[in-house]
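User: Structure please.
Assistant: Input sequence and predicted structure:
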Amino acid sequence: MLDLLNRPLRNLRLSVTDRCNLRCEYCMPEDDYVWLPREDVLQFEEISALVDVFIALGVDKVRLTGGEPLLRRDLPSLVRMLAVKPGLGDLALTTNGVLLADQIDALKSAGLGRVTVSLDTLRADRFLRLTRFDELSRVKDGIKAAKRAFGTLKIDSVVIRGVNDDELVDLVEYGKSVDAEVRFIEYMDVGGATRWSPDRVMSRQQILDVLTHRYGAIQQATDRSASAAGANSAAPADLFVLPDGTTFGIISSTTDPFCRTCDRSRLTADGMWFLCLYASQGIDLRAALRRGASVDELKAFCRLHLAPFKVPTAIEFRTDLPKSLVGKVLRRVLVEEDAAKLAGKTPQA
């Protein structure tokens, strides 16, 4: 399934719950939330049916997310349902790691392919301030369990200036000790990032400068454009190699966004399909599914609603960002000539 700019939607981020057991300041910073009513949350059978639809439309990668996905009861049963689907080449999980140690073996046995753990700090006091819960030791236990079960994993770290930007080297070294590839993520203005401001963003180049000062010359191993041209999925991270061979990544979604090569969409726990992390409008697949729509009808429904939404959006049109942050982004915005070329085109299967 291709959109108006010939971007395939091969990668589905699938939320299995809106609930979380942490309160990270950039995601869920408030004390109390009104959670989705239980009846609004997709059942496993409904999730499985929608994944069949997306596979039929060309999706071959699914990542289970939340909230915190390990809060969803009996998650290994869903993993087992999805892992055996023909055409699904990659089934992954992103978790905060708090509950991972207790569930890792069941998830691996059910067919989970790989794990990413979110970890922004290695300091217990800072972890408590960032998340409001004293759970760093359990996260580290989960990381150790993931290493045992899978041999390797990824660690995602959101870098916030003045908060944890002094831990870049520490996180790299920790990644080495647990055979994990650390991926630094620029602070984004999404979700519950109520304290977001441009001056709190640590840019890709600034991250590289810090690590170069500590380790010496850093080589770029891959970039997103090369990934998009030569692989089945456009990876969001640029990969870099330290002099000792250690690989790490940077996801520069604020200062160098990857909208033009993005192949991701997300399905929320209540069945809303969003084609951009910044999107304010979604497509209600749950309603269609519960009305009894067939796989073919749902495929047609997705194609019909693809055209108005999957266009260059998100940060490419963020005119509120200062030029020092946006850099070349403004030159990547769709210009009139590009729009004219797209006139009359329709999405393809």
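The radius of gyration is 20 Å.
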